[in-house]
Amino acid sequence: MQLDCRNLACPEPVIKTKNAIGGLKEGEELEILLNSVASFENVSKFLTSQGQNFKRKELGGGEYVIKAIKSGEINEQIDASEYVCEPIGKNVKKVIYLNEDRAGSGAVGEVLLSKFLGGFAQIDNKPYAVVCVNTAVKMTTDRSHPGFKPLRDLESLGVKIFSCGSCLEAYGLVDKLSIGEMTNAYEVAEILSKYDEIKL
């Protein structure tokens, strides 16, 4: 059975999925078509909460598909407010993407970037994560770098810090990683596809 949930506002895709899979027999398949990251994640979250087996795939061009197999009974009572799309505006989580260890040239640029990062620790709507690639990985490995402390402060406040693994290897810094965790290109692409990006 195919369920087209494209162009539907949250939480409607979850509600339609619940009703559709609830009407299936054990072992029958439901293919859900989506074209929104929020709906893709919400339907996946719902199926997981209901103990349903499913596979999900990004088709490209903003299109997604989830194939679920009816695996047990569906709880008829769900809290639809858990599956409302995150509002657009000041509360949408951001990801800071750093391609260099400075904002501008020289030592002044290093200090300037550290001040920008320090500012994010002071605001209520803190970023979800900081992604460091290329020379930006020096900030997560060199304790003397001006950017090291503000990144450590952000991490202590719950902000995730990711450093490009290939970049760490290229600079011989893998064993010196002191903040956050090492990541790869696939994980970075996945993060950037889910959150608004800030470049400094």
Automatic annotation (TrEMBL):
InterPro entries: DsrEFH-like, Se_metab_YedF, TusA-like, TusA-like_sf. It holds the Pfam family TusA. Residues 2-66 form the UPF0033 domain. Belongs to the sulfur carrier protein TusA family. This is Selenium metabolism protein. It comes from Campylobacter curvus (strain 525.92).
